């Protein structure tokens, strides 16, 4: 996500960025995909979660954020490989940075999740260690530590397709799982 953001930030005049899980479909087109003054969690109610927000810091699913705010947050952590945790880490980043999580009215912010197999998750042990240190790490892990290569770029009328190589999981993540 960080590499995609940086490429879009550098190649366009976009100021609003929406990070959207591909498996979520909005149920109401009045839920505005825009960037108000604070980061906005757009997917308040998801069918597989009983249309309830499980906890306040949840920003997973669909999140809109202004480009300057994403820079302030230092983007997403680069430590999450596999499935799970990166969105919770972002929630902590938003809180730690002094920004607020806003949400549209519940009745407009409902989504249906397309059924699919999830990727292999990080172990609970690793995910827990990363989340416990999120507030301390957010300035040290993110856009400022990102390494990637742009392999291909294809411009189309409505979108730009980027092929990026983000490498392999960092060695210190493997060590974290061993301890």
From TrEMBL:
GO biological process entries:
carbohydrate metabolic process; glycosphingolipid biosynthetic process
Domain named Galactosyltransferase N-terminal: which ranges?
A: 1-36
GO CC list = Golgi apparatus; membrane
Task: Give a GO molecular function annotation for the protein.
Answer: galactosyltransferase activity
UniProt organism field:
Petrolisthes manimaculis
InterPro entries, A to Z: Galactosyl_T (IPR003859), Galactosyl_T_C (IPR027791), Galactosyl_T_N (IPR027995), Nucleotide-diphossugar_trans (IPR029044)
Q: Which keywords belong to this entry?
A: Glycoprotein, Glycosyltransferase, Membrane, Signal-anchor, Transferase, Transmembrane, Transmembrane helix
Annotated metabolic or biological route of this protein: Protein modification; protein glycosylation
- Which protein is depicted? Uncharacterized protein
Family of the protein in this entry: Belongs to the glycosyltransferase 7 family.
Q: Where in the cell is it found?
A: Membrane
